[in-house]
Known about the structure:
The chain is of the alpha/beta class. The chain is built from eight helices and seven strands; from the N terminus they run E-H-E-H-E-H-E-H-E-H-E-H-E-H-H. A seven-stranded parallel sheet has the order 3-2-1-4-5-6-7, with helices on both faces. The model has no long low-confidence stretch (mean pLDDT about 90).
Amino acid sequence: MSETGFGATRKIAVVTGASSGIGEVYARRLAGLGYDLLLTARRTELMEKLAAELREQNEIETRVVSVDLADAGQLDQLSKEIESLGSIGFLVHAAGFGYMGDFVDLPMEKHQRMLDVHMTATVRLCYATLPGMIESNVGSIVNVSSVAAWTVGPGQAMYNSSKAFVKTFSESLHMELEGTNVHVQALCPGVTYTGFHDTPEFAGFDRSEMPGSWMTPQDVVDESLAALKKNRAVCVPGSNNRFLTLLFKSDRVRRIAGKKVRKQAPK
């Protein structure tokens, strides 16, 4: 472990949703690349365990910040802490969640939480990290969107819409930064083996009913990193998922897929 302090001799990577899934795998990959890590999520115990493991394995510094990104005060505090660190080398915004159910049948608080985590947090975290990256002319941002950004359908109106925002926002930033060494990517995985579907909101969920080919988070992150090296604004991991995005340009296909997903909504 370095004795010169967090971020003193290495670039810092910020990873949200670091306690599991894509966020956890990204933290492992970035630790292996020699970044000091600022890990954020709500499950502190899991992050502390991961942070200790990565410190020991990679001789890096780690910092754990337990944050609920749907809480405006906590998001503001995290953004200020990131800004105080100066130049951030890598940001991965992997925190996110989903639920199923028609828009009017669900409480507004649930919709607002999704807006806050998927949209507001994306904007605030990019705003906190980009100035330092632009000043140093180096850095990468990966915002986790979804193949759902291409779809419409009942039962996931807020999820699909918020992920479409993440994709469009990230692509726009990518264009603004053309000619620099700062890269922004919208990572749009399809169905992935994480804890995403292991929540009460997906009680009775049948993975076999979801369109697409299931991937591991390790494969998703590997494709994301490879796409970053090629400075691609959008990464859709998996050839089958890329084919799906082409199919989803058809209104008829999108409607069929949306109805299939809706059947799994809790009754």
